[in-house]
From TrEMBL:
Highest taxon above the source species: Eukaryota
Record's protein name: Heat shock 70 kDa protein 12B
Region (Disordered) residue spans: 12-55
Gene3D superfamilies: 3.30.420.40, Actin, Chain A, domain 4
Leader sequence residues: none
């Protein structure tokens, strides 16, 4: 339904489709199909957006959960000593004698779908099940990437277990988050018995920066379902962007906590000999010597000596190389408080360590047949997991200068199943295949040459380097001095060598923190203690709504003309809230006012549109798509004219949207009564 504007209105909202996406309603506000018409009162940009600093609640402890594609963990710190980060205690399972500060992202559910275990415990229990019994259990691994790869993500999206059975993805993620909640709270209560109230805990969840709004909302919904926080206390949960968290942590580091890849002796396969990287900043130090106050302030405000020895305002890149994605961000360190400013929108792609696993699976398909591998995974899921574990162990030893072959143990179940399915043994299959760099060992193992292992890494490593080089070619990134290589995959000597070889010629200093796999987790804790540390971000997309504007002949296309009550309107105009790559300060608000179309209307729904282009004119332009809906829940209007003499039913609802945080946020008030209006943006209802 259209709400016709008054004479002084500049525009009127109209969607290109009469369909409206369902948005969950509070129990007290029943949804009515006929209550969706709205009319903007101030469709133009607010002349001076207001920036408000985030209001901090009095949390006594911050718990961060780094929910990774291949491994996950948690850490925490108390408000009384925020930089003293406590890592989770040793996980059960894993390799004997090795301290595990993360656990595999593996979830095991019973055949009835009830939670059984997570991490090493889930992996080991599933491995020990009888093969026939294992086919009924639901085992999930590396399932985080499903949220990124699903183009039509909703609350009903399904995940497939290794045995082929499906269940709602929201429940799978909620099971995992509930496990971390219970594990963390138990440890907190053991360390701090006085911590009795769960609402004194601020939770932080990490997600890739390249994730879109639906994926971020999905993680929040899973946290609600898991009981981390309630919807009424939404601010108790923060979504942290993984490369941002790494950046927050790296700015605290000292020189001895970093490894300079350009100075490593050739042939090293792990983090080893190095020289101090401060020699590369002597010129910057000389310039800062003239401003000793600046350096002192940076150190005293908590910024590491590396940054104090650099020119204030230096730019750097963080490349988060994880299990599922490579996630890139570019930051500028600001004086005097050491805050961070994003210089280019987050970039990257699905180039993570699992790409190497996929290449290994494809190699097996070339040798034994793709149909056999698919059948084996479905009918012997536990044995397949056993095989992937064996490959993972050998993958971690791969290095660019390794000369010896690698032996990978094949489970007996694999050998036996192939003989029954293929009619001959695996040694015969290897001889007949076109893969000449993988042999059969006399010890009953696959024997891969070092060239074969290097080839498995090549597509993923090349993809990561291409993403980094594309970023470095952007004009906004010129003058970068440093690249921090972080994330679990950044432990790989193969990746470290390739990145340094490709980027060293650019004069870029590539450095790796000592605790590279824990950088994001520790940074997420620091972010939870001070979420305002990233002061400015770049909007990844252009966001706005569709409106009616007065039709201007020769400017607007004739097919957009709408004549209503003798007035000429241009339909489907894309009215922009924020542009792609626009710098947006934390707390900066974009305000719009709307009035309900009818007296007594209980809900206002406004379709949101987005696109990658900055200059879209209409919501029907190529690349513009509906991405969500803004919902305003209205209390019954008080009868009679208001204090300003407005007629009954005439209400103005002022919405304020923030695009400078890790999530898009909205608040609203009823201007007539100055009361808050329940407002939400739903990105999962499409």
């Amino acid at each position: 339904m259209l709400a016709v504007p008054e004479m002084d209105l500049q525009g009127l909202y109209i969607g290109s489709s009469p369909q409206r996406s369902p948005v969950p309603s509070p129990p007290a506000s029943p949804r009515t199909q006929e209550s969706c018409g709205i009319a903007p009162l101030t469709p133009s940009q607010s002349p001076k957006p207001e920036a408000r600093g985030p209001q901090q609640a009095p949390f006594s402890v911050v718990v961060a959960i780094d929910f990774g594609t291949t491994s996950s963990g948690y850490a925490f710190s108390f408000a009384s000593d925020p930089e003293a980060i406590h890592m989770m205690r040793k996980w059960e399972g894993g390799d004997p004698g090795v301290a595990h500060q993360k656990t595999p992202t593996c979830l095991l559910l019973t055949p009835e779908g009830a939670f059984h275990s997570f991490g090493y415990t889930a992996r080991d229990y599933y491995h020990d099940l009888d093969p026939e019994e294992a086919r009924d259990w639901l085992y999930f691994e590396k399932f985080k990437m499903k949220i990124h790869s699903t183009t039509d993500l909703t609350l009903k999206t399904q995940l497939e277990a290794v045995n082929g059975k499906k269940m709602p993805a929201l429940e799978v993620f909620a099971h995992a988050l509930r496990f971390f909640k219970e594990h963390a709270l138990q440890e907190l209560r053991e360390q701090c018995p006085s911590l009795l109230e769960e609402d004194s805990v601020r939770w932080v969840l990490t997600v890739p920066a390249i994730w879109k709004q639906p994926a971020k909302q999905f993680m929040r919904e899973a946290a609600y379902l898991a009981g981390l926080v309630s919807r009424e206390d939404a601010e108790q949960l923060l979504i942290a962007l993984e490369p941002e968290a790494a950046s927050v942590y790296c700015r605290k580091l000292r020189l001895h906590q970093l490894v300079d890849l350009s100075s490593r002796a050739p042939g090293r396969g792990c983090l080893g000999e190095r020289r101090s990287i401060d020699s590369s900043f002597r010129q910057a130090r000389e310039q800062l010597r003239r401003s000793r106050h600046s350096r002192t302030f940076l150190v005293e405000s908590g910024v590491g000596e590396l940054w104090a020895d650099m020119q204030a305002g230096d730019r750097y890149v963080v490349a988060d190389c994880g299990g599922g994605t490579v996630d890139l961000t570019v930051h500028q360190l600001e004086q005097p408080h050491g805050t961070l400013k994003e210089l280019y929108k987050a970039s990257g792609g699905p180039c993570g360590a699992v790409g190497v696993d996929l290449a290994f699976e494809q190699l097996l398909g070339r040798i034994f047949g793709e149909d056999f591998i698919t059948t084996f995974k479905r009918q012997r899921p536990a044995a397949w997991v056993d095989l992937t574990i064996a490959f993972e162990a050998r993958k971690r030893t791969a290095g660019p200068h390794r000369t010896g072959a690698v032996n990978i143990s094949l489970p007996f179940s694999f050998i036996d199943f192939y003989r029954k399915q293929g009619g001959h043994n695996v040694e015969t299959a290897l001889r007949k295949s076109s893969v000449n760099f993988v042999k059969w060992s006399s010890h009953g193992m696959l024997r891969m040459s070092c060239e074969a292992m290097n080839e498995l890494f090549q597509p993923t490593v090349s993809g990561i380097i291409q993403h980094i080089e594309a970023l470095l070619d952007r004009p906004e990134v010129q003058g970068v001095k440093l690249l921090f290589l972080v994330g679990g995959f950044a432990e790989s000597a193969m990746l470290q060598h390739a990145v340094q070889a490709a980027l060293g010629t650019r004069g870029l200093r590539v450095v790796v923190p000592h605790d590279v796999a824990l950088t994001i987790l520790k940074g997420a804790v620091l972010f939870g203690q001070a979420p305002g540390v990233v002061r400015v971000r770049r909007s990844p997309l252009t966001y706005g709504v569709g409106v009616l504007n007065r039709f201007v002949a020769g400017v607007h296309p004739p097919d957009k003309l709408l004549v209503r009550d003798g007035r000429r309107w241009c339909t489907d105009v894309f009215e922009r809230f924020v542009a792609a790559e626009q710098s947006v300060a934390l707390g900066e608000e974009v305000r719009r006012s709307y009035c309900p179309a009818r007296p007594g209307q209980r809900r206002v729904l406004i379709n949101l549109y987005c696109c990658a282009a900055e200059d879209a004119r209409f919501i029907t332009d190529p690349g513009v798509r509906k991405c969500g809906a803004l919902s305003l829940e209205l209390e019954p209007a008080e009868g009679g004219p208001d204090a300003a003499g407005a007629p009954p039913g005439r209400r103005e609802i002022r919405a304020a949207m923030q695009f400078g945080d890790t999530e898009i946020k909205v608040t609203a008030i009823d201007v007539n009564t100055n009361r808050s209006v329940r407002a939400a943006i739903d990105f999962l209802s499409n």
